[in-house]
């Protein structure tokens, strides 16, 4: 059974494992330019070590919420706390993986992966060692000296992820991390992300348009309503992910939940 909680977002969802919240949003509102009310009263808790997807119709404020959590954007009202401290801007405990990967075209994979550490002033040998470890971790071993133009979209995306992992942030914020790659790459990367998350014990918050992806990957799905984005539902998919990835996609609980979410979202697009 999947636990679906109706719009009591700060409440702990029934059936979820007890874990400490690492990120909290309290009463977040965002109004752009005094007129566009993008987010309304977002109260959420993100537990340490969990992967949460932000899902909802186009324009409901998913990216806005992610950027507010990242400290890249200020809320109009409300606040974000990370490890109990209010967020006033970007911080080392959060790493943002950009949709367009934000790689430097003139730098090698290794240097791109080490870039966050370079910004932090970590010395060259240490940052290269750490970057090498994460380039390997994301499956790019042997590509350290290549340049972004020599890589496929999926590989570039992995470099972006290696960069975020290398700074050893507690929270990885990913804006549609799989949107720019083909279906096969997307599936493979989703599988790899599940394994990576198990190994690294990081907290992932990702924005997605894909119901299937959210159900496949997430410990928790936050469904946002159309603008102004509010928390419509918090869903806790209880999917056993240890087995064959293709079997998971055929499992009745996976199919039932994707269908249930679609039925909920469908009214927004009709
Ligand atoms: N800088 C901005 N100035 C004015 N309005 C903005 C700005 N950024 C976003 N918006 C508006 O705020 C709303 C939420 O945008 P946001 O990009 O957060 O939504 P989203 O759910 O991520 O959308 P999508 O799924 O299409 O990527 C949209 O209506 C968008 O047009």
Automatic annotation (TrEMBL):
UniProt keyword annotations, A-Z: ATP-binding, Nucleotide-binding, Transport
Known CDD domains for this protein? ABC_NrtD_SsuB_transporters
Q: Which GO terms describe its molecular function?
A: ATP binding; ATP hydrolysis activity
ATP-binding among keywords? yes
**Would I find Thylakoid among this entry's keywords?**
no
Q: Which residues form the ABC transporter domain?
A: 23-251
Domain of life, source organism: Bacteria
Q: Which family does it belong to?
A: Belongs to the ABC transporter superfamily.
What protein name applies here? NitT/TauT family transport system ATP-binding protein
Species: Tranquillimonas rosea
The record lists the lineage as: Bacteria, Pseudomonadati, Pseudomonadota, Alphaproteobacteria, Rhodobacterales
């Amino acid at each position: 059974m999947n636990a679906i909680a109706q719009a009591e977002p700060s409440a702990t969802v029934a059936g979820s494992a007890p874990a400490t919240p690492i990120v909290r949003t309290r009463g977040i509102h965002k109004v752009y330019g005094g007129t566009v009310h993008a987010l309304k009263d977002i109260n959420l808790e993100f537990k340490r070590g969990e992967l949460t997807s932000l899902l909802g119709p186009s324009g409901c404020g998913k990216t806005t919420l992610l950027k507010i959590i990242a400290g890249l954007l200020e809320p109009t009202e409300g606040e974000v706390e990370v490890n109990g401290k209010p967020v006033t801007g970007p911080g080392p405990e959060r790493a943002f993986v950009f949709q367009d990967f934000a790689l430097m075209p003139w730098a090698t994979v290794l240097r791109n992966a080490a870039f966050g550490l370079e910004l932090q002033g970590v010395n060259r040998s240490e940052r290269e060692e750490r970057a090498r470890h994460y380039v390997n971790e994301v499956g790019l071993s042997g590509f350290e000296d290549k340049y972004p133009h020599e890589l496929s979209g999926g590989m570039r995306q992995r470099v972006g992820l290696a960069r975020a992992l290398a700074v050893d942030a507690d929270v990885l914020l990913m804006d549609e991390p799989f949107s720019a790659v083909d279906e096969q790459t997307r599936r493979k990367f989703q599988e790899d992300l599940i394994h990576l998350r198990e190994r690294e014990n990081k907290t992932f918050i990702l924005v997605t348009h894909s119901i299937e992806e959210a159900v496949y990957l997430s410990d928790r799905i936050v469904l946002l309503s159309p603008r102004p984005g509010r928390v419509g539902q918090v869903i806790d998919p209880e999917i056993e992910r240890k087995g064959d990835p293709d079997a998971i996609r055929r499992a009745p609980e996976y199919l039932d939940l994707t269908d249930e979410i679609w039925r909920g979202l469908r009214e927004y697009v009709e």
